[in-house]
Write a structure and sequence with these properties.
single chain, mainly alpha, Glutaredoxin, 4 helices, 2 strands, Glutaredoxin 3 (Grx3), Glutaredoxin_subgr, electron transport
């Protein structure tokens, strides 16, 4: 659902399949301190998972974060 939301907004993103790369999974857990997926990073900052992304969208904060990434 996170990918669908970002695609609807026309956002380019990089998907890293941590289920296929144990080193990337470990890196994700160190950066986000979370074990669940997805873990979403904007401008190198962990914003959490899909629920957090959707909350940013509902509170009209997501566009500002994405604009700062451009």
């Amino acid at each position: 659902m996170a990918k669908q939301l970002l695609e609807r907004k026309g956002v380019n993103f990089q998907e890293i399949r941590v289920d296929l790369d144990p080193d990337k999974r470990q890196e994700m857990m160190q950066k986000s301190r979370q074990r669940t997926v997805p873990q979403i990073f904007i401008n190198g900052k962990s914003i959490g998972g899909y629920t957090d992304l959707a909350q940013l969208q509902r509170s009209n904060q997501l566009d500002d974060l994405l604009a700062a990434n451009s």
